[in-house]
Write a structure and sequence with these properties.
Layout (H helix, E strand, L loop, with lengths): L1 E4 L7 E4 L3 E3 L2 E3 L5 H6 L9 E7 L4 E7 L6 E7 L1 E8 L10 E7 L5 E4 L3 E7 L4 E7 L8 E3 L20 H4 L4 H8 L2
InterPro entries: RmlC-like (IPR000888), RmlC-like_jellyroll (IPR014710), RmlC_Cupin_sf (IPR011051)
Keywords: Isomerase
Pfam families: dTDP_sugar_isom
Length: 183
């Protein structure tokens, strides 16, 4: 498994598995505690796995958690997604940095998103399954959402948005969220 640091987001990593392919398809390891440990992360902190299924054009995000935040491992297990991370950690050398990636079921690459970063994605294929492994149990009272189309962020989403949750559609601006969080 190859590990690559994400320059635009301090502490973020891409974990690229080595697929073994043959006439049946492929097999690959998508999580390896020793590899995660090799970059200074504790693999034992991940306590919850979740899966979302989206159709082409669906946008989910930008989401983060207040309080201690939430670190996560994100992988597109089927289809393709345009994945975005925004660094909202005031003490980070990449504060307000943004990075985007195409994650796909073909590569099974996993993105590590550090706590304190906002995350969102858009489905690029008819079906896109996205897996999350998070480092603490989900608490809806800590959910924070930032407008996906905030001009300050200027995220270039690749497709017109076909659907999103009401919460995402009505999300406040980055400036409002930062003010509310005291950042």
């Amino acid at each position: 498994m190859k590990v690559t640091e994400v320059p635009a987001i301090a502490g973020a990593y891409l974990f690229e598995p080595t697929p073994h392919t043959d006439e049946r398809g492929f097999f690959c390891r998508t999580f390896d505690a020793d590899v995660v440990r090799s970059v200074g992360l504790d693999p034992d902190v991940f306590v919850q796995d979740s899966l979302s299924r989206s159709v082409r054009g669906v946008l989910r995000g930008l989401h983060l958690r207040s309080g201690a935040g939430e670190a996560k491992l994100v992988r597109c297990s089927y289809g393709r997604i345009h994945d975005v991370v925004v660094d909202l950690r005031p003490d980070s050398p990449t504060y307000l940095g943004r990075a985007s990636f195409e994650l796909s079921g073909d590569t099974q690459t996993t993105l590590y998103v550090p706590a304190g970063c906002a995350h969102g994605f858009q489905a690029l294929t008819g079906t896109a399954d996205t897996s999350y492994r998070i480092d603490r149990p989900h608490d809806p009272a800590e959910d924070v959402t930032i407008a996906f189309d905030d001009p300050e962020l200027a995220i270039d989403w690749p497709l017109p948005v076909t659907s999103m949750s009401r919460r995402d559609r009505e999300a406040p601006s980055l400036a409002e969220v930062l003010k509310h969080l005291g950042k």
